[in-house]
Protein: DNA-directed RNA polymerase subunit omega
Amino acid sequence: MARVTVEDCIERIPNRFELVLLAAQRSRDIAAGSPLTVDRDNDKNPVISLREIAETTVDPEQITSGLIQGLQKHVEADEPEDDAFDALSGQRQIPADIRESANEAEEVFADGLTVHGDGGEAEDAPAEQAVAVEAFDPDNPAEDMDR
Structure:
């Protein structure tokens, strides 16, 4: 086939800007593995896409919908109803031994027990005395580097 020109395609798609967008999308589709509707004739994908548009072997509406889907950033998905979430949450069971150990841990923290980092025993202490935090002085960061 002779070289394809933009004038051949303008007869099918009158807007040059739309033609460029559709030809580019069709080229991407060909690169992704979409079947060709014309012979390759050692041409590159953009030339093949223009030839397909000029010969009306592809549907411009189908290319347009693919282009729009490719440019969308937020695609609305169907979400299950609330009843489905309630049913799923009821299926998940926590073993009894894990629940018991979690309850024991809550009791330890509620009593105000603290555990020292050196592996020492836990001792009773009020919650206010459990942690000593040194104040950070934002005006003198070099002082914190010395610590």
